[in-house]
């Protein structure tokens, strides 16, 4: 994400252990650890 670029998109970032997540949405959204769903295994 280029923080110097001015756009109408909202960017939110969250660090979870060794995972770094960022989302870019047209509406404000705050990414938190509670909004992330962990899946232990995939069948």
Q: Please, could you describe this protein's structure?
A:
It comes from human gut metagenome. One of its GO terms (molecular function) is transferase activity. With 43 residues, this protein is mainly beta. It contains no helices and 2 strands. The protein has strands at 10-16, 19-25. It has a two-stranded antiparallel sheet with strand order 1-2. A hairpin with a 2-residue loop joins strand 1 and strand 2.
Short summary:
The chain has 43 residues and is mostly beta strands. 0% of the residues lie in helices and 33% in strands. Strands 1-2 form a two-stranded antiparallel sheet.
List the main descriptive attributes of the protein structure presented here:
43 residues, mainly beta, two-stranded antiparallel sheet, 2 strands, 0% helix, elongated
Globular, elongated, flat, extended or rod-shaped: what is the shape?
Answer: elongated
N to C succession of SSEs: EE
| Largest sheet strand order | 1-2
Distance between the termini: 33 Å
The main β sheet shows up as: 2 strands, antiparallel
What is the tally of beta strands? Answer: 2
Q: How many helical stretches?
A: 0
State Rg: 13 Å
What proportion of the residues is helical, as a percent range? under 10%
User: Strand fraction band?
Assistant: 25-35%
Q: Low-confidence spans: pLDDT under 50, at least 5 residues?
A: none
* Structure class: mainly beta
The averaged pLDDT comes out at 81
Keywords: Transferase
Organism: human gut metagenome
GO molecular function, one term: transferase activity
Protein name: 4'-phosphopantetheinyl transferase AcpT
């Amino acid at each position: 994400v280029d923080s110097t670029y001015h756009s109408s998109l909202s960017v939110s970032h969250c660090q979870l252990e060794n995972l770094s997540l960022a989302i870019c949405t047209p509406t404000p959204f705050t990414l938190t650890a509670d909004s992330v769903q962990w899946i232990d295994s995939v069948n």
